[in-house]
Amino acid sequence: MGKNIVEKIIEKHLISGTMKSGKEIAITIDQTLTQDSTGTMAYLQYEAMGVPRVKTKRSVAYVDHNMLQAGFENADDHKYIQTVASKHGVYFSRPGNGICHQVNLERFDRPGWTLLGSDSHTPTAGGIGMLAIGAGGLDVAVAMAGGPYYLTMPRVCRVVLKGKLNPWVTAKDVILEILRQLSVKGGVGKVLEYAGDGVSTLTVPERATITNMGTELGATTSIFPSDEMTRAFMRAQNREDEWIELCADYDAQYDEEIEIDLSTLEPLIAKPHSPDNVDSVKNVGPIKVDQVAIGSCTNSSYLDLMRVAKILKGKTVHPDVSLVISPGSKQVYTMLAKNGALADMVDAGARVLECACGPCIGMGQAPATDAVSVRTFNRNFYGRSGTVSAKVYLASPEVAVATALTGVLTDPRILGEYPEIDMPDTFVVNDNSVISPAEHAEDVEVVRGPNIKPFPINEELKDKVSGTVLLKMEDNITTDHIMPSNAKLLPYRSNIPYLSDYCLTPVDKGFPARAKEAGGGFLVAGHNYGQGSSREHAALVPLYLGIKGVIAKSFARIHKSNLINSGILPLVFVNEDDYNTIDRDDYIVIEDAVNQIKQGDTLIVKNITKDIEFKVKLEVSPRLKNVILAGGLLNYTKKNA
Ligand code: MIC
Ligand code: SF4
Description:
Elements: H1 5-13, E1 14-16, E2 24-27, E3 31-34, H2 36-49, E4 58-62, H3 72-88, E5 91-93, H4 100-107, E6 114-117, E7 131-134, H5 137-144, E8 149-152, E9 155-162, H6 171-182, E10 190-195, H7 204-213, E11 221-223, H8 228-236, E12 256-261, E13 268-270, E14 278-280, H9 281-284, E15 291-294, H10 302-312, E16 322-325, H11 330-339, H12 341-348, E17 351-352, E18 372-375, E19 391-394, H13 397-406, E20 434-435, E21 465-472, H14 479-482, H15 496-499, H16 511-518, E22 521-525, H17 537-544, E23 547-552, H18 557-565, E24 569-573, E25 587-590, H19 593-599, E26 602-607, E27 612-617, H20 622-630, H21 633-640
Parallel strand pairs: 3-4, 3-6, 4-5, 6-7, 9-10, 9-12, 10-11, 15-16, 15-18, 16-17, 18-19, 21-22, 22-23, 23-24
Antiparallel strand pairs: 1-2, 2-8, 5-20, 13-14, 21-25, 24-27, 25-26, 26-27
Helix pairs in contact: 2-3, 2-5, 6-7, 10-12, 10-13, 20-21
Bound molecules: alpha-methylisocitric acid and iron/sulfur cluster.
C-alpha cells in the first residue's frame, strides 16, 4: 500500500511506536528553532539538562519578538540567548535578521526533514515539504539535547486544491476558507496534507502562508509536497542541493479528505475575535478602518510586500488610517530597499517598521480605543493587539492595502488590474546576521541579567489532590487569555513571579490575587482550552500560582502537553454536562490520585461543596502518566537519567 507524505517522513524518523493514528510515537528531530520570548525558558531548561552541545543537525536561536527595548530586560535576554546559544552549538539569528519562520523558510527549512520549534507557527516550514511542529520550550530543549519528540500519530487529512486562484484572491483566502469550514478546533489531532492540481499554481511563500495559519485550526502541522516549484524557490535561495522531491504515492491512504476549488474563492476576512469567524469582505462591507498592519510570519514575504508596494506606488494612505508594514526578514527588507519598493511604501505614507513580529504580538502599534484594525496576521484573539476595546480583522495583504488607501474595508478587486509579481530567479542571500556557535564552549561566558529568574518546578503528584475551583471559563480560552503578552509583559518572559500577577486577567482581573490567597487550586474550562501560542508560560505561571489541575471539555494540543510537562493534570469531563454542575469556589478532591492514574484512564472527582461526584479522563500515554506522577518532564527526565 502506498504512503502519504506524512507517513513517509515519519517512517524515516520513527524511533518508537507504530504509525497508527491516536497512538504515541517518538521521532528524531533534525532541526530546532527557538525565538526569544519562549527561548530564554527553553535554554534555561536546556542548561538544566547538562548536555554540553546540541545534538541536532542544526539548531537556530532567533530574536524577533521582544524587540522594543524600553528597559534593560529585553536586551539582557538577547545577550543571554546569544551567549548560551554560542556555548552550546546553536546558530544565533540576530535581532534585525527577521521573523524566525520567514528566515527559516528562506535559509534553513528542508523538504523531508523534521523541525521542532518553540513557537506555534513552526508549521510554516510545511510550505517547503518539511514536517515542522510547534511545541513548548522544554520539548525543544529535550530535542536539542538529542532526545526524541513524542507525539500522537496524527490523522492525515488530504486537502485537495483544484484549479487556480483568481486575481486579487490569495493564499490567505485559501486558509481563511479552510478555517471557515473546519473551525479553530477542526484540526486537532490532524495533519493537513495538501494535494491536487492547484498545488503547482502556488509558490513556496504562498504555501507557507497556508501552512502557517493551519496552526489556527489546532492542527499538529500542515504540509505541501516538494515539487519543481519548491526546487525553483530553493535554487533562488542558492540551496538547490538541499532539494528533494517529495510527494504522496498514487495509492496513498488518508483518514479524511476535503476539497477546495481555488477558482471559486473570493477575498475573505476573519472578524473579531477569532480566526475562524470568517466572512467575505463584500459581506462585511465598507466599515471604517483606523489602522492597517501588514506583516507577521503569515504575510511578510518578498512577493507579498512587492504587491503591496506596487499598489501603493504613487498613491497616498487615507488620512484617517495608520498603515504599518513590517517586512519578514532582512532578505525581504534588503530587496525592497534595493529595487525601490521601500521608497514607494514610505512615499505613500506607510510607517515601515523593523523586520520582527512587532504589532502581531502587541509589541507596539496598539490600536486606539475602540479602533478597527485590519491586519495580515494570523491571530485576532481578544486583547492580543494591546488594546482590549479594539476590533481586529485578519485578511490578505491585498485587502489590507486596498483598505489603507480608501479608509474603509475594501474588496481589492475594485483596484483594477492585479499586479503580478514574478518569483525572482535569485534572492539576495547574505547570512551575515546568523552568527555561528563558538568552536570551544569554554571560550564563552553565558551572560545572565537580573531579569532572569529561576522557573518553578513541580513536585511528585500527591495521593490526595484537592483545592478550590478558582475560575470557571468558556470554550476557546486562548493562551493570550491565560498569559497575556504585550509590550509591557513580554520583557518578563524570564520572570515567572512577575508574570503571575497577570495570569488570566483578561478573563478575571481578580484571579491572581484569589489564587495566591487560596495557595492554588483548580481551573475549569470549556472546549479547546489553551488554543494558540506554544508559550509554556501559560502552564508555568499557573504552576507558580499552585494550580494542580485543569478540568475542561477539551484541550488544545500544545497547551495540553505544556501542562503535562509542568506536572499539572489536564482532565477532561467524561460527561460534558458535569461542567454545568461545577462552580467557582467549589471545593474539590481527587482521592488516591496516584493509584487512580496508575490503574486506568478515569478518575473520580468529589465536589465537596455540592456533595456530588463526577468522572474525568486523563487522556495520555503510559509514558506521560509517569511524567505527571513525577511532577513534570524535568523531574521525570532526571529520575530516568
Ligand atoms: C504567538 O504568535 O502567539 C507567539 C508569540 O509567537 C507565540 C509564542 C510566544 O508566546 O512566545 C506562539 O505562537 O507560539
Ligand atoms: Fe511572531 Fe506573530 Fe508569527 Fe507569533 S504569529 S511568530 S508573534 S509574527
